Amino acid sequence: MTLEELQAKHEESLKELAAATDDAAREQLRIKYLGRNGLLPAIVKGFKDLPKEDRPAFGKITGQWRQELESALAGTGGVAAAPKGPAFDPSLPGRWTRPGAKSPISRVMEETAAIFARLGFSVEDGPDIENKFNNFTALNTPAHHPSMDPSDTLWLTDDLLLRTQTSPVQIRTMTANKPPVRIITPGRTYRRDTTDATHSANFHQIEGLYVDIKPVSLADLKSTLTYYAHEMMGPRCKAIRFRPHFFPFTEPSVEVDFQCHVCGGKGCRVCKQSGWIEVAGAGLVDPRVYRFVGYDPEKVWGFAFGMGVERIAMIKYGIPDIRWLYENDVSFLNQMA
Fold first, then answer.
1. What string of DSSP letters covers 158-208?
2. How far apart are the C-alpha atoms of 307 and 280, rounded to whole Å?
3. Are 274 and 281 in contact (CB under 8 A)?
4. 303, 220 in Cβ contact below 8 A?
5. 52, 122, 123, 193 — which has fewest CB within 10 A?
């Protein structure tokens, strides 16, 4: 498409909007020009195929075009909108709204931070855009691991990606500090995973790390997570169990189950009659990870764990579909007040 053709399309769209007489016609034009498969998005996607010297002119015209269309569709531009009466009628009674409430995700993250603070853990944060070393290499992830594939991970360049876990914050913290280190790392993570009602491409994790110059064992890990389970899920959750598993960054590695807080371990719908709910992955930090961050694996000991915030929230509040946490449905959010 040439600049002349682009300008002609621009003028044609404004004429069509000026001739639109009702909301249905205006909505059709909005879809035609601004919708996901509309003309303007298609033109913008085609910028990569334009000569570099033409891109600024195309960008200026399309930007102005989009602004004019959005303004006209909103009734604030050059296209006259149907009169809708005064913006404010002082004779109407007031409309009171209920106070807002924190989302389940925020509640779980804040409560988790408070629980671990009582155990001496501090909160550390890091960037959402990470490099390959911090997100994979330093965590002892082999080059052939499936998580490296673009079908699983949102890569931005050959070296930068949207972090798949909050573990890179642990690497950054250990690289910058000598042991002892006792932290939790809550934050947003990203993966190409939207397969069902329990998965989302954007989700939150809370990971923990404890490294010391004195011996730290699985018994310490179990006592820490048992305390967390009791505090987060309530007194009916009195136990946790470990099941052997594999993670590249811990050895030995375990899956962690909390005793069901609904039935107290007797078996119910929430725990699928097992009495247990899978919550976290954990284990003793692999010696290779210590070497990547400059620690001597012969002189330090530690454990790490990680859990999904949304999973904790769904279990704690009985939420059946993870998508409810992101849809901003007032009928759902009001229940959290």
1. SSEEE-SSSHHHHHHHHHHSPSPEEEEEEEEEE-S--SSTT--SEEEEEEE
2. 4
3. no
4. yes
5. 52
Q: Could you tell me the pLDDT band of residue 78, with boundaries at 50, 70 and 90?
A: very low
- CA 32, CA 18: separation in Å to the nearest integer? 15
Check residue 249 and give its pLDDT. 94
The tokens of 135 are what?
């997100």
pLDDT in tens, 111-169: 999 999 999 999 999 999 999 999 999 999 988 888 888 888 899 999 999 999 999 99
Residue 82 confidence (pLDDT): 45
- Output the average pLDDT for the chain: 86
| Band of pLDDT at residue 197, cut at 50, 70 and 90 | low
* Lateral strand order in the sheet of 122-123: 122-123, 181-190, 202-212, 301-308, 276-285, 250-259, 240-247
Read off the tokens for 57: 């002119």
Crossing angle (nearest 10°) for helices 23-34 and 55-73:
160
Can you give 194-252 as a three-state secondary structure string? Answer: CCCCCCCCEEEEEEEEEEECCCCCHHHHHHHHHHHHHHHHCCCCCCEEEEEEEECCEEE
Amino acid at position 197, single letter: A
Q: Let me know the angle formed at the C-alpha of 188 by 309 and 254, rounded to the nearest 5 degrees.
A: 50
pLDDT at 80: 43
pLDDT band at residue 186 using 50, 70 and 90 as cut-offs: very high
**Runs of H (alpha helix) within the chain:** 3-19, 23-34, 39-45, 55-73, 104-117, 132-135, 167-176, 218-233, 287-293, 309-317, 330-333
Q: What are the beta bridge partners of residue 204?
A: 188
Q: What distance in Å separates the CA atoms of residue 54 and residue 47, rounded to the nearest whole number?
A: 9
Give the end-to-end CA distance of the chain in Å, rounded to a whole number. Answer: 53
169 contacts 187 by C-beta, under 8 angstroms = yes
Residue 247's alpha-carbon distances to 140, 145, 171, 286, in angstroms, are: 9, 11, 16, 9
Mean pLDDT of 286-300: 96
Closest alpha carbon to 5 in 65, 67, 95, 80? 65
